[in-house]
Automatic annotation (TrEMBL):
Protein family according to the UniProt entry: Belongs to the CcoP / FixP family.
Keyword check for rRNA-binding: no
Subcellular location: Cell inner membrane
InterPro entries in the cross-refs: CcoP_N, CcoP_N_sf, Cyt_c-like_dom, Cyt_c-like_dom_sf, Cyt_C_IC, Cyt_c_oxidase_cbb3_su3, Cytochrome_c_Oxidase_Subunit
Protein name: Cbb3-type cytochrome c oxidase subunit
Pathways per UniProt: Energy metabolism; oxidative phosphorylation
Quaternary structure and partners: Component of the cbb3-type cytochrome c oxidase.
Key words of the record: Cell inner membrane, Cell membrane, Electron transport, Heme, Hydrogen ion transport, Ion transport, Iron, Membrane, Metal-binding, Oxidoreductase, Repeat, Respiratory chain, Transmembrane, Transmembrane helix, Transport
Cofactor: heme c
Residue ranges crossing the lipid bilayer per the database entry: 33-58
Length: 284
């Protein structure tokens, strides 16, 4: 309910004429220091708009241009780095790893590039992650762990549909390729027995020989040429329990990795190759 403005007897301050539940609102003026500060900020904002590029397509009377300054700074830094980058582009990863100076630069630059482009899937330390993101810090490699193998994988990726040289072949979904779920369960038991984590299964061994050994090997030793992982160790991309192995056999898996060739400078790909090789599982 609004009332006619009047002066509050207790404070001597005029009211606004508003009242709620018997409480009247005082029309107390703002403190002078607050008003002066507020006016100063308005004046500062106006001066900034005139002096600096605060509005689209307005450079300001001082001619300051932070975008241009950033571009110039980046160009300067690229020019400083270009001599070492040129050497990193021209050298093979093996030669980089053998040269103390180049190796130092490669490990430093590779660490940064890995954190930016790879750690989201493979983990900050290359430890991998559940769901098909392999560890890069052990000695279990799907496509090989030599410098050349690693560089090829980084450059072309895996099953990405964008690079004709991408790694990876398709594993059949055996639930749709003629095996019953009972047979798939037998194969899963045999697969687990290869690494000593499950009981032997004669029927599964026969089915494995007929359907799986061509890629994974008679003993589950794997085949890097086609990207068929080892099954005789206890390292699993999608889980090593019977349910996970059964699902893999029945419905297949198809991990994807982008092709970094064309996205990253060849020098950066070489640095990443040396860095990944040095994580702990690299091969000669």
């Amino acid at each position: 309910m609004a009332r006619k403005p009047e002066t509050d007897a207790a404070t001597g301050v005029a009211t606004t004429g508003h009242e709620w539940d018997g409480i009247r609102e005082l029309d107390t003026p703002m403190p002078s220091w607050w008003l002066y500060t507020f006016y100063a900020t308005i004046a500062f904002a106006l001066a900034w708009v005139v002096l600096y590029p605060a509005l689209p397509f307005v450079r300001g009377v001082l001619g300051a241009d932070t975008r241009r300054q950033l571009a110039e700074t980046m160009a300067t830094e690229r020019a400083k780095a270009e001599p070492i980058l040129a050497r990193l582009r021209a050298a093979t990863p093996e030669a980089i790893a053998a040269d103390p100076e180049l190796r130092t630069h490669a490990l430093a630059g590779g660490r940064i590039a890995f954190a930016t482009s790879c750690a989201g899937c493979h983990g900050a330390g290359g430890q991998g992650a559940p769901g098909g993101f392999p560890s890069l810090a052990d000695d279990d490699w799907i496509y090989g762990g030599s410098f050349d193998d690693i560089r090829t994988t980084i450059s072309h990726g895996v099953r990405n549909g964008e690079d004709a040289e991408a790694r990876g072949t398709a594993m059949p979904a055996f639930a749709q390729a003629g095996l019953t779920m009972a047979q798939i369960g037998d194969v899963a038991e045999h697969v687990l027995s290869l690494s000593g984590t499950g009981p032997a299964n004669a029927a599964g061994a026969t089915l494995f020989a007929e359907n799986c050994a061509a890629c994974h090997g008679d003993r589950g030793e794997g085949n890097r040429q086609v990207g068929a992982p080892r099954l005789d160790d206890r390292i699993w991309l999608y889980g090593g329990d019977k349910a996970s192995v059964t699902r893999t056999i029945a419905y297949s898996r198809a991990g994807v990795m982008p092709a970094w060739q064309g996205r990253l400078d060849p020098a950066v790909i070489n640095m990443l190759t040396v860095y990944v090789h040095a994580l702990g599982g690299g091969e000669q």
